[in-house]
Structure formats: C-alpha cells, structure tokens
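Researcher: I'd like a candidate sequence for this fold, 321 residues long. If you have to choose between options at a position, lean toward the conservative one.
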C-alpha cells in the first residue's frame, strides 16, 4: 500500500533562490507550498499545516528590503516546533546562522579551530576590542551573509576613521564582528557542503574579486550584470580535493548532528602554515549549477532526497514517488 508524499512548505524571502529547490522537490514527487516571510501573523492556538517545513530565510534578507523576515521567522519556527512539525534547519540551526559570534563559540566547542573572533556594538567597544589584535583584522556584520560588512584594517586608527565615515554600515542590528585576518597562500576559501549528516562535496571559491561568495546562479547574475550567463561565471568555483574522510569534515558532521543543523555550507581558510581555520556556517546554502554539472551532484536534488528519506523513515509503509 502506498501513500502520497506530504507537502513540503518552504519558508522563503528570496524568490530568486527557489527554482532549483522547487525542481528538486518536484523531481522527488513532492507538492510544494511556498510561504513568503516578511510580515505575517501567527495564531499560536491554531495548528500549522501538516507536512514537512523547510527553512530558507537568509540573514541577508534585510538587503532585499525584507526587514521583518528574521524576527518573524524566529516566531514561526518556535510555533512550528511547538506543534511538533518537522522543520529542516529549525530554530536551533536558525539562531546559529543569525550570529557569527555564536558560530565561533560552537565551532570551538567542537574542537574546530577558528580565527580570533570578538563581538562589539557601538564605537567605544569596537575600538577597544580592535586594540587587542596584534596584526591586521577584518570587520563583518554579526548577522551577515553575502560577505556584507567585510573590510580589512591594519590599525585601530584606520578603523576609527571608517567608523566616523559615511561609508560605515553597522549592519541590521549594529553588532560588528572583529576577526583576525588570515593571510592565505592562495586566493581562495574552501566550502564544505553537508546535507543530512552526510558530506556532499567541497568546493574552492576564489576571493580574487572579493568575499561576496554566494554560489547560486542568481547571485552570480546579480554580481556580473544582466547580460552575463551564469555558465560563463562558473570559474569562480572549482572542486576541492577534500573528501568525506577528512578529519575536519568529520568534525563538521559531528557538530551538525549535535547542534541540530540539517543543511550547511561551512567555510574555512588555510593560512601560510597550513592551518585550517573555520569562520562561517551557512544554513541557507545555495549551489552553483556549473560546478554541479562538473562534479555530477545536484545539491538541491540531494536536499529533496533528504526530505524524502525522512518521510520514508517515519513511515513503515513505502511511498510512491
């Protein structure tokens, strides 16, 4: 006896990221309900719709004028989980993604090396913490995404000038991360993609043109202009030789299992001495189609298969695709 697959409700705020995910879910036989989140309302006495919920709300949502997405999503995820709904990248994973300061603490908790990282709000506190760095340091938004707020400083004086300039952007909540600058021997970072406690692939992202490294095709088009095909821009991303047996990958997977992270793109950089330092956990991860075709892996299809696997494991009777 077979049953239809449950509906997958997708919480989202950026429609440009949806097509590959929708295609993957449809290919696995799911009906998809798109739930845009910016404003909205919740009646906590009313149960959410049945089915599986998938969280795709990004910490960079404010850059698309969705200023209520992050706060509203926090309340929606609590409501969903309080009613026992399964959420892919639920509240625990979401709170971690919204704070790079928390990410640093969680990474170190699991024995993963990170650059020196501190958090400040306000000019006096920011300058005081900056004085504690022995060498160059970078700033970034605590609620980040898209490489926002990343600037390199050689001294506290240079940072002070920046804080007083009209170019300074404090981010959506005024919280600034100051982080040790890592001088890499080669201009790239490595991103490890994990789906459902499983290593999917790793890729190198070139930093030669900056740190706005979202791999989605939509982001590549926005960065290069409307007349540039994403296929032509795929060279920014290339396969990494890292495998599932890598000790760092194994630490990442254990961390995800312990912290309730279902889907993640985790980034590290290698310094001049070969030390690998991890600095970012992306829960709203995207995949580049050019790289996917090159290595033979469709990231969003694998995410859809994770959802289907959970459904099948929850039911003793097989489902029709």
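Model: Candidate sequence:
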């Amino acid at each position: 006896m077979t049953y239809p697959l449950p509906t997958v409700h997708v919480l989202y705020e950026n429609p440009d990221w949806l097509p590959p995910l929708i295609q993957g879910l449809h290919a696995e036989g799911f009906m998809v309900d798109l739930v845009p989140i910016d404003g909205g309302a919740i009646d906590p006495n009313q149960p959410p719709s049945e089915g599986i919920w998938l969280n795709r709300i990004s910490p960079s949502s404010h850059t698309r004028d969705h200023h209520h997405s992050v706060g509203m999503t926090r309340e929606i995820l609590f409501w969903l989980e309080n009613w026992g709904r399964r959420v892919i990248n639920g509240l625990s994973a979401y709170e971690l993604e919204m704070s790079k300061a928390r990410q640093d603490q969680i990474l170190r908790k699991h024995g993963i090396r990170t650059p020196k990282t501190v958090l400040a709000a306000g000019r006096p506190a920011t300058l005081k913490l900056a004085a504690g760095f022995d060498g160059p340091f970078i700033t970034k938004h605590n609620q980040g995404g898209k490489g926002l707020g990343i600037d390199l400083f050689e001294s506290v004086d240079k940072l002070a000038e920046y804080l007083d300039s009209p170019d300074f952007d404090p981010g959506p909540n005024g919280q600034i991360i100051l982080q040790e600058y890592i001088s890499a021997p080669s201009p790239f970072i490595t991103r490890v993609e994990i789906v459902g406690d499983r290593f999917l692939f790793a890729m190198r992202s070139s930093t030669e043109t900056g740190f706005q490294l979202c791999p989605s095709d939509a982001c590549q088009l926005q960065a290069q202009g409307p007349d540039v095909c994403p296929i032509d821009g795929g060279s920014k991303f290339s396969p990494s030789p890292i495998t599932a047996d890598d000790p760092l990958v194994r630490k990442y997977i254990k961390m995800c299992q312990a912290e309730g992270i279902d889907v993640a793109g985790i980034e590290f950089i290698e310094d001049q001495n070969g030390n690998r330092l991890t600095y970012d956990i992306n829960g709203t991860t995207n995949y580049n189609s050019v790289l996917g075709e090159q290595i033979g892996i469709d990231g969003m299809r694998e995410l859809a298969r994770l959802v289907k696997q959970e459904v099948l494991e929850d039911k003793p009777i097989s489902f029709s695709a």
